[in-house]
Design brief:
Elements: H1 3-18, E1 76-86, E2 88-93, E3 99-103, E4 108-112, E5 134-142, H2 146-149, E6 151-160, E7 163-175, E8 180-189, E9 207-212, E10 218-222, E11 245-249, E12 271-274, E13 278-284, E14 290-295, E15 301-306, E16 343-345, E17 351-357, E18 368-373, E19 378-385, E20 388-395, E21 402-408, E22 414-419, E23 431-440
Antiparallel strand pairs: 1-23, 2-3, 3-4, 5-6, 6-7, 7-8, 9-10, 10-11, 11-12, 13-14, 14-15, 15-16, 17-18, 18-19, 19-20, 21-22, 22-23
Length: 441
């Protein structure tokens, strides 16, 4: 079945499913998991999550793959820079010490001063998605040569009353003094832009994270946008679509030289790795290795070390289960030829932003991956040795908010965005999200 026919089939199936009331799950299926782990009960040397795994068939492939022991590091201080943001999604650091922050919907790009002053929305976003009534914003990154060219890159999507289009990568020139963008240009559109399935939480499985590699190229996550069922649409396993992939492009939006599938029949040349579901975080470590976090279906949230041409298995294998309770596909958690997650969480904690800590301000945190948790309402610190997670520590558990993004500042402090927007994108999201700063106590 070609892509166009597959897309039509998905749309028809979605329309049928929306008209039906799903049957109640049998009583022997697991109940919905508790919202988060009991952080008050964490014990040194024991896993932080004591909830039972909902997938009764699950098993780790190696000892460090899940439920690493808890290890407490030194105390830290949390400073609230602002609590007046509307569902922010990403953060970047400007050379003058200010912050550039995206808000999803209504879309806005904002400059925030260290004292918490929020400038009016940056102008120049009009007309980015002319076929859609509104534009949404996701990630933002400064050009590696920003000091010279003042270029920024960000990801956007079209939005129309609950329907979301595909992702665009946009390049623009940022004039901070004028609080405006110029030379705004869409350099890449993921394929296909549509269809989108309205049952899937519209926007929660779109991807949209970008990161610059040491090679100067842009790496980007594209979610699979599947509706969600025990037998998902297998677009993450095909090479004729960007869905469920990590792509690698130049700063002009072209497929980067040396991409692993370039030249293969019917393969999109921008694809770097395949077999992902809903990738919410993307970051390079100090050695230049690329890491990703993604949401599993119900359990099986993953931290992956991304390699060129590798297949990460979705939806053929997963440590999670379908939302109503049955296994996904044939219930296997691993298959030959498919990459295993470096680490996974089960039940789900919904990992989001991702950052590698290699600064000197927190010596105990060096060599750790910092992971924002949406459902887990925490910032997780994962100590990584030889690409294995050796201990885990929940941070910011006293804030009781969804953590959307985390970044390490030029000063070595850790900056965190909380998200008041809830699990779905809406036309009216509440103000109340925070920008927080973590420093040693």
């Amino acid at each position: 079945m070609n892509l166009r026919l597959a897309a039509l089939a998905v749309c028809l199936l979605s329309t049928t499913a929306l008209a039906q009331t799903p049957p109640a799950p049998p009583s022997d299926l697991p109940p919905v998991a508790t919202p988060m782990p009991d952080y008050a009960a964490v014990t040194e040397g024991k896993p932080i999550d004591s909830r039972p795994n909902e997938n009764k068939r699950d098993h780790p492939s190696f000892p460090e793959q899940t439920r690493a022991p808890y290890h407490k590091t030194g105390p830290y201080k949390t400073t609230e820079i602002t609590s007046a943001l509307r569902a922010p999604w990403a953060l970047a650091f400007l050379p003058d010490g200010k912050f550039l922050v995206t808000e999803r919907l209504p879309s806005a790009l904002r400059v925030i001063s260290p004292d918490g002053t929020i400038a009016p929305p940056v102008t120049g976003l009009d007309g980015l998605t002319p076929s859609w009534p509104a534009t949404g914003l996701l990630d933002v990154a400064l050009d590696p040569d920003f000091a010279r060219n003042h270029q920024i890159f960000f990801t956007v999507f079209g939005w129309d009353h609950g329907m979301i289009s595909g992702l665009d990568v946009v390049r623009a020139r940022f004039n901070e003094a004028a609080n405006s963008l110029s030379d705004v240009k869409v350099i890449f559109r993921n394929h296909p832009q549509t269809p989108n399935d309205a049952r899937s939480g519209v926007g929660t499985r779109s991807g949209g994270r970008i990161a610059f590699g040491k090679d100067g190229y842009i790496y980007m996550t594209v979610g699979d946008r599947d509706a969600g069922s025990s037998f998902p649409w297998r677009v993450a396993q095909t090479l004729d679509t960007d869905l469920g992939k990590i792509i690698r492009i130049t700063r002009d939006g072209q497929p980067a030289p040396g991409n692993p599938f370039a030249g293969q029949p019917e393969a999109l040349p921008e694809i770097w790795a395949i077999g992902q579901r809903s990738q919410e975080g993307l970051a390079f470590d100090a050695s230049g290795q690329l890491w990703e976090v993604e949401h599993g279906p119900r359990g099986g949230d993953e931290l992956n070390l991304i390699k060129a041409s590798a297949n990460y298995g979705w939806p053929m294998v997963t440590h999670g289960i379908d939302y109503p309770g049955p296994p996904m596909n044939d219930g296997q958690v691993a298959k030959p030829g498919m990459e295993e997650p470096t680490y996974y969480w089960a039940p789900s904690t919904a990992p989001s932003g991702l950052a590698w800590y290699n600064a000197n301000l927190f010596p105990e945190w060096k060599g750790s991956m910092l992971v924002g948790m949406l459902r887990g309402n925490s910032l997780e610190r994962l100590r990584i040795v030889n690409n294995k997670v050796v201990n885990e520590e929940p941070l910011l558990t006293d804030v009781h908010m969804r953590v959307r993004d985390v970044r390490v500042g030029p000063d070595g402090a850790v900056y965190v965005l909380t998200d008041s927007g809830g699990g779905s994108i809406t036309d009216n999201t509440p103000v109340g999200s925070k920008l927080l700063k973590l420093t040693p106590q």
